[in-house]
TrEMBL record:
<keyword id="KW-1015">Disulfide bond</keyword>
<feature type="binding site">
    <location>
        <position position="116"/>
    </location>
    <ligand>
        <name>oxalate</name>
    </ligand>
</feature>
<feature type="disulfide bond">
    <location>
        <begin position="32"/>
        <end position="47"/>
    </location>
</feature>
<dbReference type="InterPro" id="IPR006045">
    <property type="entry name" value="Cupin_1"/>
</dbReference>
<feature type="binding site">
    <location>
        <position position="116"/>
    </location>
    <ligand>
        <name>Mn(2+)</name>
    </ligand>
</feature>
<keyword id="KW-0964">Secreted</keyword>
<feature type="binding site">
    <location>
        <position position="106"/>
    </location>
    <ligand>
        <name>oxalate</name>
    </ligand>
</feature>
<feature type="binding site">
    <location>
        <position position="109"/>
    </location>
    <ligand>
        <name>Mn(2+)</name>
    </ligand>
</feature>
<keyword id="KW-0464">Manganese</keyword>
<dbReference type="GO" id="GO:0030145">
    <property type="term" value="F:manganese ion binding"/>
</dbReference>
<dbReference type="GO" id="GO:0048046">
    <property type="term" value="C:apoplast"/>
</dbReference>
<dbReference type="Pfam" id="PF00190">
    <property type="entry name" value="Cupin_1"/>
</dbReference>
<feature type="binding site">
    <location>
        <position position="111"/>
    </location>
    <ligand>
        <name>oxalate</name>
    </ligand>
</feature>
<keyword id="KW-0732">Signal</keyword>
<feature type="binding site">
    <location>
        <position position="111"/>
    </location>
    <ligand>
        <name>Mn(2+)</name>
    </ligand>
</feature>
<dbReference type="InterPro" id="IPR019780">
    <property type="entry name" value="Germin_Mn-BS"/>
</dbReference>
<feature type="signal peptide">
    <location>
        <begin position="1"/>
        <end position="22"/>
    </location>
</feature>
Length: 217
């Protein structure tokens, strides 16, 4: 009986240690404003001295301004993450404003470090995400002003303004630095380029088609 109790305790201790290693550490102080001048490199940003922290470290102006959507995709993302607000360091959240021209697209992409929750402020959007292999199931829906949609962490997702009017959305993300991988840019616009042989076989097209697509990026 004693041996069983010992083994159970040891298993629970190992599990708790594994969880501590595998998870982000909890915040153990009021804030850790990023010291962007520090030369220390770590998974995140070092804290600047608390006596040097000011209100501006927690502030970002101008989110009411529309982004420039005069591009091929017809969309613009205005991020508000730790790069814009140093006070977000260690807090595990960020924002983004997304503007869409008529028929504008925020193309298929993924956030490797964050779940996204999106609220439509103006207009209507066709949104969706695709599950991982092997199912690759699409969950998609038209959402309107005031509607909310969630994109799970790491899954490929998109938003498309199918209307003739501009649209605006606000996204919240569960990371101070969620990252973004736009699928087409990553695959066809990598530097150096991925081999034509690889892409032609992966997409089941000829190399000339691959070359034409790569030229767009």
């Amino acid at each position: 009986m004693v041996t069983h109790a010992f083994l159970l305790a040891a298993a629970l201790l190992a599990l708790s240690c594994f969880h501590a290693i595998a998870s982000d550490p909890s915040l153990i102080q009021d804030f850790c404003v990023a010291d962007k001048m520090s030369t220390v490199r770590m998974n995140g940003l070092t804290c600047k001295d608390a006596k040097d922290v000011v209100a501006e470290d927690f502030f970002f102006p101008g989110l009411q301004m529309a982004g420039n959507t005069t591009n091929k995709q017809g969309s613009a993302v205005t991020p508000v993450n730790v790069a814009q607000i140093a006070g977000l360091n260690t807090l595990g959240i960020s924002l983004a404003r997304i503007d869409y021209a008529p028929y504008g697209l925020n193309p298929p992409h993924t956030h490797p470090r964050a779940t996204e929750i999106l609220t439509v402020l103006e207009g209507s959007l066709y949104v969706g995400f695709v599950t991982s292999n092997p199912d690759n199931k699409l969950f998609a829906k038209v959402i309107n002003k005031g509607d909310v949609f969630v994109f799970p962490e790491g899954l490929i997702h998109f938003q498309f303004n199918y209307g003739a009017n501009c649209a605006v959305a606000l996204a919240a993300l569960s990371s101070q630095n969620p990252g973004v991988i736009t699928v087409a840019n990553a695959v066809f616009g990598s530097k150096p380029s991925i081999s034509d042989d690889v892409l032609a076989k992966a997409f089941q097209v000829d190399k000339l088609t691959v070359d034409r697509i790569q030229a767009q990026f």
